[in-house]
Write a structure and sequence with these properties.
The strands form 7 sheets. This protein has a 5-stranded parallel β-sheet with strand order 5-2-1-9-18. A 5-stranded parallel β-sheet has the order 10-16-11-12-13. The protein folds into 2 domains: about 170 residues, 3-Layer(bba) Sandwich (FAD/NAD(P)-binding domain); about 160 residues, FAD/NAD(P)-binding domain (3-Layer(bba) Sandwich). By secondary structure, the chain is an alpha/beta fold. The protein is about 25% helix and about 25% strand. It is globular, with a radius of gyration of 21 Å. It is built from 9 helices and 22 strands. The protein binds flavin-adenine dinucleotide.
Length: about 350
């Protein structure tokens, strides 16, 4: 690679793409172009707050990227041609690249019947703009981090509106008994009805249908069971996993097309102990930044360093006044320390705020 007018295209201006752009300032002589379908950055990790009626700040991407010397193209990427090293846009244009950073993130899944027709989501800003006047009862399907945060936020913001949290396991079970006890305690206090062992097989206009055939009556069903990814990479014939995420080597390069680096939710990235990194802002930012470091090293004719990543902790908000911050081992298994209550809510808020400068937005 040479630094002379090397064309770097970053697909996606979410946490991962923006963290990459911030570090690509060091790629002197390279031209950096960022493509995103949205004109503004919205904090995705706060979308449950938006659904609970809180206003969210937005950042104008063109201005933010200009500060980093990157050009912003507002368009949807509709086709990737790795042989021609180009990306086709819905605006009619085509962008050619020497190096591509693929950071298209994730979206709501809809693999269960009725989800697309009858369920709402908080996965993307567009999904989360449905809030004005939440109609209850609300059934939140999925007792993972997003489901827990959403159920707590709704119950706190709309007291009196029945909120039912449906999951296979106890909320926060992956963090162990003490975490479960705290989360359960807060959800009980907020009046959230928790139903475990619930397998939802369909969403109907009357609410989610369980495997035993019963329907949980709900005016609003919100689907929060994980994320799907855009299919651009799979359609382009890149080496992807069953979900369509790009498989990467230790340097975040596509295993089939090393001139493409994949980061954030759209990538399969090995972490400590060979365990895949989970879809999280906490992994999107460092992987985005590291992809930029790999590119810069290449442009300077240096050996890039492999990604070194370790988990530190997981933060859950439980409404605005309570939370849980749990220590994690390097490989994402629960560690020993835990912070609860208002102090945890404050830490979570500070962590969320800290992502803004890390994404180069301030
Ligand atoms: C409610 C909620 C709460 C969360 N809380 C936490 C949390 O507390 N901690 C945590 O670590 N994680 C949390 N997450 C997960 C976190 O938001 C994601 O893992 C993170 O946003 C992934 O970052 P990303 O940059 O890979 O993708 P994204 O943030 O999804 O960004 C992808 C970007 O690509 C753009 N894009 C997509 N397709 C196209 C296309 N075809 N053409 C052009 N542009 C396109 C999108 O517009 C978007 O701007 C939460 C998620 C949700 C929904």
């Amino acid at each position: 690679m040479t630094g002379e007018q090397h064309r770097i295209v970053v697909l996606g201006a979410g946490y991962a793409g923006l963290a990459a752009v911030r570090k690509l300032r060091r790629a002197r002589g390279a031209r950096v172009t960022v493509v995103d379908a949205r004109a503004e950055f919205t904090e995705r990790v706060r979308l449950h707050q938006r659904v609970a009626g809180q206003e969210l700040r937005q950042w104008e991407l063109a201005r933010a990227l200009d500060r980093h010397g990157a050009e912003f193209v507002r368009a949807r990427a509709i086709e990737l041609d790795p042989a021609a090293r180009s990306v086709r846009l819905d605006t009619g244009g085509t962008l050619e690249y020497d190096t591509l950073v693929y950071a298209l993130g994730s979206i709501a899944p809809n693999h269960v019947p009725g989800v697309a027709e009858y369920a709402r989501s908080v996965a993307t800003p567009e999904d989360a703009w449905w809030t004005t006047g939440v109609e209850g009862p609300v059934a939140v399907v999925g007792a993972g981090a997003t489901g827990i945060e959403l159920a707590a936020e709704l119950a706190e913001s709309y007291p009196g509106t029945p909120v039912i949290l449906l999951g296979a396991d106890e909320p926060a079970a992956w963090l162990g008994g003490k975490a479960v006890a705290h989360v359960r305690g807060v959800l009980d206090r907020l009046g959230v009805e928790v139903r475990t062992g619930a397998k939802v097989v369909e969403v109907t206009e009357n609410g989610p249908r369980l495997a035993d055939g019963s329907v949980v009556p709900a005016a609003t069903t919100v689907w929060t069971t994980g994320f799907a990814v855009p299919d651009l990479a799979a359609r382009a014939g890149l080496d992807v996993d069953a979900a369509g995420r790009i498989r990467t080597d230790g340097y975040l390069r596509s295993t089939s097309h090393p001139e493409i680096l994949a980061v954030g939710d759209s990538a399969v990235i090995a972490g400590p102990g060979g365990r895949e990194l989970r879809m999280a802002c906490a992994t999107a930012i460092p992987t985005g930044a590291h992809a930029a470091a790999v590119i810069v090293a290449g442009l300077r004719g240096r050996e890039p360093k492999p990604l070194r990543f370790r988990y530190q902790g997981q933060c859950l908000s439980l409404g605005r006044r309570d939370g849980l911050v749990h220590g994690l081992r390097a490989d994402d298994r629960p560690g020993r320390w835990m912070l609860r209550g208002r102090a945890a809510a404050v830490v979570k808020e500070l962590v969320v705020r800290s992502t803004i400068p890390m994404a180069g937005l301030r």
